Fold:
Amino acid sequence: MKTIDELLSEGVTGKRVFVRADLNVPLDGTTITDDGRIRAVVPTVKALADAGARVIVASHLGRPKGAPDPAFSLAPAAARLGELLGAEVAFAEDTVGTAAESTVAGLADGRVAVIENLRFNAGETSKDDAERAAFADQLAALADVYVGDGFGAVHRKHASVYDLPKKLPHYAGYLIATEVGVLKKLTDDVRRPYVVALGGAKVSDKLAVIDQLLGKADRLLIGGGMAYTFLKAKGYEVGISLLQEDQIPAVEEYMERAEKNGVELVLPVDVLVSSEFPDLKTKAPAHPTTVAADAIPADQEGLDIGPETRKLYASKLADAATVFWNGPMGVFEHPDYAEGTKAVAQALVDAPGFTVVGGGDSAAAVRTLGFDENAFGHISTGGGASLEYLEGKTLPGLAALED
Ligand SMILES: Nc1ncnc2c1ncn2[C@@H]1O[C@H](COP(=O)(O)OP(=O)(O)OP(=O)(O)O)[C@@H](O)[C@H]1O
Ligand SMILES: O=C(O)[C@H](O)COP(=O)(O)O
Structure:
């Protein structure tokens, strides 16, 4: 993989450099609630700009349906990037076409532009190779060189991640180099006990990872939205909790295999439930009830792990030599459902070993709940991406940079 340092030594003055970042930050309306992913790409953007490149920063945000949707505009992220760089950042209101072309044409050497959300275009995420390649051609027309630095999205076979680097000279940015360097430590010679904690909401994406982790981790702690498919597979009723019904047979097999292989698969023993998802805007009191994991009422959903589970998970992390944690334990954005995530974060801080937190929302949770970033071994910008890396999968965005 060629790195950005090689690009810089070749000289970039006046070159149009396309930086594929992951600016998929949590938003409350147009307010960014955690700018960690923007800060993470600053070293790459700054180095290129300082060397006289014309920098085009591109990213996805959320999961719009292949068409413009103002709720997912990158305009707030562009403004924040400008503040962090201490320089004006131009914003193109379209990803490709006239608006993007004229913004890029107007860039002076050493200046930066952000183009609108890549996923406003169906070609970005298309499963059709030709459609993706056609969109990548449009993106390629904007630039001379490609720098991949959106670690959080390298597991996606998307046009800007996988197809575009094939069309331009390509290099890995500083963030990707750092992330891969740290995660490699967890795949090469991991110190034991190795404990993995999994939660969050992208259940279908992340359940498959457990298949591989069963051969690697000593203990798996399951929380967040992920837990209810396990509880259901155990024969419990989960009410209206997040559930991946089609994965139940796979989860049953994971539980059997864990037992056979001597991997501790730890599930919640109690959960906080409510009949309503909380209002994350007003943060109005949600008045949840604590119930045993096998007593979730039919009309209620589990939204955090309960107090006994918090203690149990803390005890399972207390002697860990290596920890990887992805996915909040509950809907931490609401104070009534933040205690589970706080307890696991605190247990990582207290654990004697090397701790890695991965994921956009997991990293945001750690910071917004008031933890010191330096208390963790590494905070990765990638959730699904880091899990798939640990799984040993070939990640499209890394493979494309290696080619
Ligand atoms: N029990 C639950 N029910 C519904 N949503 C939940 C539950 N527990 C956690 N969540 C939600 O999960 C979301 C985060 O999940 P996600 O899988 O996106 O994690 P992540 O750290 O951002 O990883 P990635 O980077 O892959 O997106 C949070 O917004 C949180 O509110
Ligand atoms: O949040 C993430 O994990 C990355 O930005 C990738 O987003 P995605 O899961 O919507 O592809």
User: Anything to note?
Assistant: The first helix runs from residue 4 to 10.
